[in-house]
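Chapter summary example.
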Amino acid sequence: MITFSYLLIEKIVIMLEKGIGLLFFLKKPKNYKTGPKDVYLRITVDGVPKELSCRRKWEHSRWNPHSGRATGLKEDAKEINAYLDTLQTKAYECKRIWNLW
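The structure predicted for these 101 residues follows.
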């Protein structure tokens, strides 16, 4: 997780200036037939989008595309939502720190 955090920080620091938008979504892998899809984070800064893999997979039937989060009250849904919240917090923390310099 530490390596991913540094990669995330590295990519965000390059782009941060004014506005930032974050979106978690499911993306089909190549040659996809059935099963879980990859969870991705799209970071948009000043209209420039970048996509990063969250290194997690999730079922499409248990995903809310409007909120960008897993649905349900099961432990696995709570875990992935907590992980996505952590990524979101780190992205906004990078923006906050970068804007102070």
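To summarize the output: Residues 7 and 52 are 9 Å apart (CA to CA).
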